[in-house]
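I have a small job for you when you get a moment. Can you supply me with one protein entry, sequence and fold together? It will help me judge whether the discrete encoding reads sensibly. Write everything out right here, beneath this request:
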Amino acid sequence: MRVVEATGDGLAAVGPADRPEPPAPAAGEVKLQMVAMSVNPADLLLLEGRYGVKPEPPFIPGAEGVARVIEIGEGVTDLAVGDLAIPLPGPAWVERMTLPRAAVVKIPEGADLDQAAMLKANPATALAMLKDVVGLQPGDWVAQNAANSAVGVNVIRLAKALGLKTINVVRRPGPEERLYALGADAVLVHDGEGPPPAAPGRAKLAFDAVGGWGTEALAKLCDEGATIANYGLLSGEPCRIDPSHLVFRDIALKGFWLSKWFRDQPKEKVADTYAYLVERLKTGDIGAPVAARYPLERAAEAVAHAARDARDGKVLLITSAHPEA
């Protein structure tokens, strides 16, 4: 079976390899044929050895993807061969995997395969941050940077569905029209020089994917007593925030990591979260643009593309089971 292997020595230290075929499913298990897998910022951090976990090399990266069921173990009655499914555990950059039925989320037939491949991480991060960091009420303002990222566009779409208003910061002109079309209430272009432009509201909650100057810019968009949740390291710099925001304005800075959220939540809540996201996927209320698709054999090219600063859209890896393969 073909997989993607990495050493953790950098983005270029990744490529195809052969691993043993996963076993046939035992009772309560299913075997999956992967179709498409996303390349996320967290995957890039893992390849660089800068993520929250450091697997023993060589390792297989990949946090999410979409698959088809190809075998079913005894006792599994709610899945059939050919069904679409999302594996919750990784690693996902493989051709096939065998998992417990409880670790698989069924996806409706006819769902967009590329969007389903991106369902596990980015929409779940957006929804969990909107619902679980602080208590929000319809009409509250939420601010974010990296607003044209996959998490960012899902924050916009899910916030709109929840009755929240969004202030969205991007680094360069260009995405404004698309973000407004998705439901953004304000889009601010700010490259880190000086204070951010004025916004129509003050945020109760802000999402920081950038760190560095991005944290301070968000603080200036926040109301007194607001919370900034940092969930990314795009700048490669520590979060910078003037202590006056913390001392005099009671702004709190905390981290958010979806992997920890998974560990902390009851299984029922995780299931409910994905049930909600599946419904949003069916209605087209979540999703992000796709920049390119690469076969597993060209994983190094896919990683290099995903690491581009000016990329517009998500990069996917695909197997021979994808219609575009």
